[in-house]
Fold SDR family NAD(P)-dependent oxidoreductase.
Amino acid sequence: MNEKSINDIFAVNVTGPTMLAAAAIPFLEETKGSIINLSSTYGSKAAAGLSLYGASKAAVVLSTKAVQELDQHSLESRSIFYDKNK
């Protein structure tokens, strides 16, 4: 694991969805839309070799909750948890 790999994981799983949500908020407010983020069960459990992936997915869940808790906008926001074993 190197710095580029870490940055890539967080760029795809955290930075991208966060920036997209921020850009979409005015349009979603106008249309009464929702924010749906895809997370993973690995965001709440440990797995060998997946700690950084899990940390990035936990960050997705927390950023989704932050939109709800701050209630700056009248948007619904949810995280969907994916588990490839179910």
